[in-house]
Hints:
The protein contains 14 helices and 23 strands. By secondary structure, it is an alpha+beta fold. The chain has 4 domains: 2-91, Rossmann fold, CATH 3.40.50; 125-180, 2-Layer Sandwich (Dna Ligase, domain 1); 189-312, D-amino Acid Aminotransferase, Chain A, domain 1 (2-Layer Sandwich); 327-427, Phosphoribosylglycinamide synthetase, C-terminal domain (Glycinamide Ribonucleotide Synthetase, Chain A, domain 4), CATH 3.90.600.10. Strands 12, 15, 18, 19, 22 and 23 form a 6-stranded antiparallel sheet that branches. The chain has a 5-stranded parallel sheet with strand order 3-2-1-4-5, sandwiched between helices. Strands 6-9-7-8 form a 4-stranded antiparallel sheet, sandwiched between helices. Helix 1 links the parallel strand 1 (2-7) and strand 2. It is globular. The N and C termini lie far apart (46 Å). The model has no long low-confidence stretch (mean pLDDT 96).
Amino acid sequence: MRALLLGSGGRESALAWGLSRSTCIDDVVAAPGNPGIARVADLVDVALEEPAAVVELARRIGAGLVMVGPEAPLVAGVADALREAGIPVFGPDASAAKIEGSKAHAKSLMERAGISTAAWRSFTDAGAAVTYLDELGPPYVIKADGLAGGKGVVVTSERDAAIAAVNERLVENRFGVAGSSIVIEEFLDGEEVSLIALCDGIDVAACEPAQDYKRARDGDEGANTGGMGSYSPVPSCPPDLAARIVDEVIEPMVRQTAAEGAPFVGAIYAGLALTGKGVKVVEFNARFGDPETQALIPRLSSDLGEAALATATGQLRGTELRWSNEVCVTVVLCSRGYPGPYASGHEITGLEAAGRIPGVAVFHSGTRETNGKIETAGGRVLAVSATADSFGGARARAYQGAAAIDFEGKYARTDIGLRAERIEGSES
């Protein structure tokens, strides 16, 4: 069977790597892909958010499975068009993908499903939004309602910065339609955990938990980003808690979307806060997380292609994903200045050396090939993932791999997985 993978980021690089190892996938075609994906897949070009173009491509190459990586094509209805054409697709229809396309919609769904989340309100008027900010008090959480490429959320303890964030979205229109409505919510104080599950509209097969690092700087300081690193499993979310999250968060949302005529098919992502008052949902996404996927796929013992096809064809019942006992730590290498302005076009060296380190896999995110050389082409450039028997070992390998790679302006956090390593050390 031929699989078509849509996307060009680090998540898709990891998914392509996993699909290329599947016993039921003969070859992988990626659109548009990137130089890292090109190592395991053939690359073609397509307009990702044009459903008819994606259907035409899938038919032309004879795809037996289409896997949609990023959220924008899902919100644009690409999965709807593929299903109408009778092509198995891993990814929700636009109506179900609205769980990520509108934060207010997701919050309303959570309320109707009885899922615990932060207090919140939605606004289109800046004055009313500021009044609610003052009601909640700091830290302030302001979110663009729509898709903003991971840059629509501001968390700050400074009232002036919070008001500026409101005005940027509702008055200055810096986020366009995505920021024409905003959600302001209560700050959830607790360790964050990501739990992703495959869902065929009815049944669920959960991944093991992962933890993401959103802030740009060590110690969870600096601006929010699309993700500076990840690790899996998560010591603070043991199997019994993960099972309870599936029971109390994932499955109620899956039932609710189905009851409202929008059954969810694909990877449903719950971003969670482990607060003193219990588990609360920070956000839902309609696809695999990035960079959590880069920490999960190297640990997945199950056949990714088989699991994705079972999800796409409504045959997930009875499936239980299997995981390696090893841990994985993923360090994201960024361009200096990210998530703000940054320069691109710098040559990347050391990729092969990093890949030769035992247990290390390098996934491409913001790269391009020019005259036979790999260059930076984004804010998040590469994800260096490493597996080992311990968090200490995985961290050492991941940072060894990161050190082997060089490009002008390279930046990475130095504390990815450090909390887990310390927990591990205290228990030994």
